[in-house]
Amino acid sequence: MSPRTTAQFEEIRLKSREKIILAAMELFSRQTYHNTSIADIAKEAGVSKGLIYNYFDTKEDIIKGIVEYMMAMGDRIMVESRNEDDPRQELREMIRQTFAFIEEQGHITRLMVPLALEIEQFSFINEIIEEKSKYYLGRLVTVLERMGYEDAEMEAWTLGLMLDGIPLDYSILGARLPIKKLEQYLYKKYNL
Amino acid sequence: MSPRTTAQFEEIRLKSREKIILAAMELFSRQTYHNTSIADIAKEAGVSKGLIYNYFDTKEDIIKGIVEYMMAMGDRIMVESRNEDDPRQELREMIRQTFAFIEEQGHITRLMVPLALEIEQFSFINEIIEEKSKYYLGRLVTVLERMGYEDAEMEAWTLGLMLDGIPLDYSILGARLPIKKLEQYLYKKYNL
Amino acid sequence: MSPRTTAQFEEIRLKSREKIILAAMELFSRQTYHNTSIADIAKEAGVSKGLIYNYFDTKEDIIKGIVEYMMAMGDRIMVESRNEDDPRQELREMIRQTFAFIEEQGHITRLMVPLALEIEQFSFINEIIEEKSKYYLGRLVTVLERMGYEDAEMEAWTLGLMLDGIPLDYSILGARLPIKKLEQYLYKKYNL
Amino acid sequence: MSPRTTAQFEEIRLKSREKIILAAMELFSRQTYHNTSIADIAKEAGVSKGLIYNYFDTKEDIIKGIVEYMMAMGDRIMVESRNEDDPRQELREMIRQTFAFIEEQGHITRLMVPLALEIEQFSFINEIIEEKSKYYLGRLVTVLERMGYEDAEMEAWTLGLMLDGIPLDYSILGARLPIKKLEQYLYKKYNL
DNA sequence: GATGAATGAGGGTTCATTCAT
DNA sequence: AATGAATGAACCCTCATTCAT
What pTM did the predictor assign? Predict the structure, then answer.
């Protein structure tokens, strides 16, 4: 009889929001942002069209929601794995995590890369990608320096580019990309 | 007043078709496939909307036209540069051409990469990319073998992935990607 | 903890209802009936959307509520000001009250005039206006007859029309309408 | 076989545009701007919804089109009727034209007055009304001065307001407003 | 009495595509 | 070959209204 408490409402809101975000992620990665209509998302989420606008001001806003959701969910590439004593160990861990991420969360890759390219206005995605890359590159440089590389910066770039190429090729070649063997090869190549 | 010859007609047709394709390329790379309307293309090409349907059955068909056009235009990454005597020279040439292509024809890169990801129905683009990659990879393997690399296949993959990563990063970082230095570094790294 | 008495409930009801009506009046006159949503009203009234439907069956119903509210509030144009002895005095009082109303309650004017025209279904507003006008006109006729006007009815019409023209011009011209001077001029013209 | 000439296209465009404007005028005056949908207009004009956007950028733009159309159609209140010799004759003509306009083109009145009040953003309608009023008032002042009125300006205001009141009352009372008798009464009152 | 999440019809607008000329 | 008026399906979004709590 009495109205729901604020906490109850909050929980309901979170659940609905999540349903919508998950549906949107699924569809965007399956069929592209532009080929997915609000009606599609609503149906996939089992929710009315109108409700979506209770949580997102605009269709593009849903993307922002997805990114936030993913960041909150873990953002697992970035798990810290510093190793003061052994730079080799640290580099190995960085590479391992990157491959693990691509394999385990391949759909995120397949979602974000196209999104970044598909929606030009969405500079904020590019900004996130750029910032992460810069941070990642910085760490690579440090580690490679400690490993004694002379031109550590350029070597970091080649490694970084290669790791960036993986999701791209992966989204085209899928299983034909020999990920496992590549990972092993990198360990060997860098003596890890 | 004399009726135009078949050849004249054919020439007119080719000219109009080219105008449309060039306009579409320009706009797709500037503003994305989905954000470009047939009306936009018509205006950019200085042609009526109706005429476009005289040459292309559908909007997506224009993409096919673009790809064909680009292939016909020279496909310059693929210029043969075999060098039976010196594999080093051949690899150097392959790398050089790749970088040259990215720099000179950056807009094509910025056009094709998004297109490949944006339009899922367009498996044929993926197929083209895949075929080219396979060919390119094959050549890399051969060259690296001749250069004495033990695991030439995996080394070719790393190099290929890296070269694929460049356009991706380039379309995000633009001038902040140190392309020139990267090219030089690769020459040094592979002793070319 | 003791249950509220019926009277207390009734008071609460009245208070909420009034809050809603005042909010709606404010917004309708500020931004038009059609540009004001139930959500806007709820926010302005500091009340939930649901509650509004506790007091009004429909959005249009709120208008009925506003009209009733205004009538109950005093209907101040219509304050009786009969003066058996001096028709001049009576006419002067009628004119004075009209001008006073327009000046003091300008927002009501700006609310009702558009409303009457905007919402055709709302014949009842037109009916009210019509009835008031007829009554007002009747009084004018009587007064003017007593003042000796030969064609009192037509003179009453001209005066009535003029007084109707004021809110209309007022809602367009605002302060550029020389209300004060007009009032004085009318007194002079009718020798009041 | 050959494409239509520019002139032919121009004629087609004018015709379609007019069909749409006439349909919109009809519906706006019958059921209010806000209660008329683009679909309604399309149906009334016997045209597709899409075509309307070939001629008007936006729904509000149609109003601008209507106003322009009406101005181009004649704007008949404003027919010059100067009479250097006899101000009485000139005033009589002004009043006559006003009444004629209201009677003959009542739908325009019923269209524009609500429109001006319904759409607040549409300052341009208000501006037109204001400008016309100022002009009209100015002429009234001049004429009344020549007729010897002492406070010609205020007298002009009362007359102007009254003439403004007519369309307002007319849109509410319709035929119950004794227009004919009012007109005659004014002639008599002003000795025309 | 009160809340706000949820619904769904409907509105404005866009745009690929057709077709008469 | 060429034009651009015309179509209509589809899309994003708004909002009055309902209802479980």
Answer: 0.82
